[in-house]
Amino acid sequence: MSTTSEHVKIHHDLGVGWITLDRPPLNIVTMEMCEAIGSAVEEMDADDVTKVIVITSAGERAFAAGAEMKEHSLDAIEELLETMGRLLRQLQQHDGKPRIALVKGVCSGGGNEVASFCDLVLARSDARFSQPEINIGAAGNMGCMMMSRVISRRKSLELALTGDWIDAEEARRLGLVNQVFPVESFEEDVAAYLEKYTSKSMAALRLGRSQLYRTFDQPFSAAMDVLDETFIHEVFKMEDYQEGVAAFLEKRKPEWKNR
């Protein structure tokens, strides 16, 4: 059953499932919004129209400037951690479609956690990122834990213990962001980038993501075993793989069964 929220908007367009945080002006994330985002991701993972899931934001000022501070009270904090943790685990769930965060403006605290737990991050050139929890007396956080899997531990510790901001270009240089697009051409650049995914087989995107996640952090031999197993028992048996090989040999564009 869907969990709805007036602050989370959902629509589909040309193979993209859009989840929009819409709580102006800063899109502060609430537990209700986390549940609605998670519900939308679950439904898009299961449908037959979505190839890639994009989490974005309404307005120009922020992707999301943190989680709702009123929900950080002692009588609510445990529920907040459980709710946020459930969403973040779902974003990293291996058996799912690619998740892309589309970031403009401020992306901090709980908002940065949502973005960093997505598979890919696209940033507008004015985006700024931080995990500022140290400033309210709480340094260790899920955002910096995830950052440490992408960038160095030293830099993750620095960001956690200072609460410093980094801009979009530094985030890209560090590997936290995949692409940075100019403000002037942002929508056009994003549309062209997303087409790289929507032109592919839905089954191949999903299985490829799952294969790679199952190899991350594995010893080399175990990772090779995962790939051997999945290629033999899953990839080679897919209709779209057989169509892709045929199209290559016949020098034509593939006609995916799983569009």
Characteristic terms for this protein:
6-stranded mixed sheet; single chain; 17% strand; alpha/beta; 259 residues; 4-stranded mixed sheet; 2-enoyl-CoA Hydratase, Chain A, domain 1; 2 domains
Short summary of the structure?
44% of the residues lie in helices and 17% in strands.
Describe the SSE topology.
Elements: E1 8-13, E2 16-21, H1 31-46, E3 52-57, E4 62-65, H2 77-91, E5 99-103, E6 106-108, H3 110-116, E7 120-124, E8 128-130, H4 142-147, H5 153-162, E9 166-167, H6 168-174, E10 179-181, H7 186-198, H8 202-215, H9 220-233, H10 239-249
Parallel strand pairs: 2-3, 3-5, 4-6, 5-7, 6-8, 7-10
Antiparallel strand pairs: 1-2, 8-9
What's the alpha carbon Rg, rounded to whole Å?
19 Å
CATH topology of the largest domain: 2-enoyl-CoA Hydratase, Chain A, domain 1
CATH architecture of the largest domain: Alpha-Beta Complex
Largest sheet strand order:
1-2-3-5-7-10
- Termini separation (Å)? 25 Å
By helix and strand content, what is the structural category? alpha/beta
CATH class descriptor of the largest domain: Alpha Beta
- How can the largest sheet be summarized? 6 strands, mixed
- Write down the domain tally: 2
Could you give the count of β-strands? 10
Strand content: 15-25%
Mean model confidence by pLDDT = 92
Order of helices and strands: EEHEEHEEHEEHHEHEHHHH
Work out the helix count.
10
Helix content: 40-55%
Uncertain runs: none
**CATH homologous superfamily classification of the largest domain:** 2-enoyl-CoA Hydratase, Chain A, domain 1
